[in-house]
Amino acid sequence: MSRERAKHSTLPPVQQNIEKLEKVIKDGNSYGAQQMYKSISARYIAAERYSEALDILHSGACLQLQHGQVTCGAELATLYIETLVKAKVAYDDEILDRVRKIYKKFPQISVPEQLGDDDDMEQLAEALGAAKTRVDCCSSFLRAAIKWSADFGPHKHGSPEMHDMLAEYIYSESPEVDMAKVSSHFVRGKRPKKFASTLVNFLGKCYPGEDDLAIARAVLMYLSLGNLRDANLLMDEVKKQVQSRQIEFPESDLMQFVVYLLLTLERDALPLFRTLRQAYKSSIDREPAFNELLDEIAEKFYGVRRRNPLQGMFGDIFKMMGGELGM
User: In which domain of life is the source organism classified (predicted)?
Assistant: First the structure.
């Protein structure tokens, strides 16, 4: 017991360490400060003084990011989440605010689009590399935070607010946007109108033939989670924003399918759902993931259990064996 007390007493008040480390960063020694943040917070964690370790890591992550040290800041941010897990801290609004504060410190810098001489090309290559690093670092931090929030909070898929943060950062900062990844986070968020405006922005700059795929994917992802309300809201909002911005809404068989599907899911109409899938098969097959999403939708809305390919194969084998044995 006395050893435990001694162990605790060797650690100074946390604010003293935070101020000391802040000075090291302000003096320009980000690397030295990084090692100190890690070693000092580790001592608090070893003493099970988690709250103080979290204060140190949070302060360090914010300061490093504020000073443009993205890799260092992201490392401390991820250690902050790992400490939440180690301490079994429950998800609440206070921690969400602290995660959001770190997120807002990640730089948001436009990648230059104009190309000129060789120097400009070199500058562009550097900017693209830096953008990729920012997105990778922020994504690692927020993915860890989402997993913690799913394990220690009420949301099965993790904090909706954190999903929205990640979707927005990936979309705004990625040199090449992966719209499927952006959509997968937005549909687990709680801002369908923001998702709609992001989609409309994407329509204005995507390759021909990607526009209707992006909208259909977004709607089907919402529906695969059983969320008919936001699927409809998204579709209505996209149409409204497209009209106000004078962008052409994609007219295709796939879009027609999505409109009919939304209407079909309003009622108990499994035969019609199956007929639609068959009738628009060639459009659905344009995106390999769509059939999987539609299987999930059938399960969510009509209770149709998805057939495991292996179960089907073994079932066929057993039937054959049964026939041979006269069963």
Answer: Eukaryota
- At how many degrees (to 10) do helices 118-152 and 70-86 cross? 10
Q: Contact 305/297 with Cβ under 8 angstroms?
A: no
The model carries a pTM of 0.88
| Conformational region of residue 249, where left means phi above 0, alpha means psi within -120 to 50, and beta covers everything else | beta
Residue type, 26: K
Q: Give the pLDDT confidence of 84-121 residue by residue, as tens digits.
A: 999 999 999 999 999 999 999 999 887 665 555 555 77
Rg (CA), the chain: 25
Angle formed at CA 126 by CA 115 and CA 166, multiple of 5 degrees: 105
Q: How many Cβ atoms from other residues are within 10 Å of residue 268's Cβ?
A: 11
Give the Cα separation of 321 and 227 in Å (integer). 43
Residue range 170-190, pLDDT digits in tens: 999 998 889 999 999 999 999
Rounded distance, CA 67 to CA 74, Å? Answer: 12
